[in-house]
């Protein structure tokens, strides 16, 4: 028995701005690709030297802060949560990052890298969502974590 091929969605920067409340300099994703409903997606961040964190992290040896990699994972997951529940009668007013577990940083990210946040839904209960995330540069795993988020709809 053959399965029907599924169509994967995407969200360009304009759609990301509609889905998330974050703005520069704290928006950590440029677009989202391969959206499979609320099950999984990949967020993309192009790391550039002109970002404000590099003036102090670290002068002469710019390294993208690990906490911002985790924030990029959270924003990617939050965007697909919001996208999934966007209807006329139910719309997320805010997404709050609630938990982080099993976080590991494996390799530094530097200007010129393109980070791909691979997010997969682990569980959902009412307005709480849990995701497993991997940040990759090319095929190299640079960070991983399990995160939880809560949607506020009122």
Structural summary, described in words:
- The protein is globular, with a radius of gyration of 16 Å.
- Strands 1-2-3-5-6-7-4 form a 7-stranded antiparallel β-sheet.
- The chain has 2 helices and 7 strands, in the order βαββαββββ.
- The model has no long low-confidence stretch (mean pLDDT 89).
- The N and C termini lie far apart (44 Å).
- It has one domain: Thiol Ester Dehydrase, Chain A (Roll).
- The longest helix is centred in the middle third of the chain and has 20 residues.
- By secondary structure, the chain is α+β, with helices and mostly antiparallel strands.
Core attributes:
2 helices, 7 strands, 18% helix, globular, 154 residues, Thiol Ester Dehydrase, Chain A, alpha+beta
Task: Summarize this structure briefly.
This protein is an alpha+beta fold and 154 residues long.
The oligomeric state is single chain
Rounded to an integer, what's the Rg over CA atoms? Answer: 16 Å
Topology as a string of helices (H) and strands (E): EHEEHEEEE
Helix content: 10-25%
Largest sheet: 7 strands, antiparallel
CATH superfamily: Hotdog Thioesterase
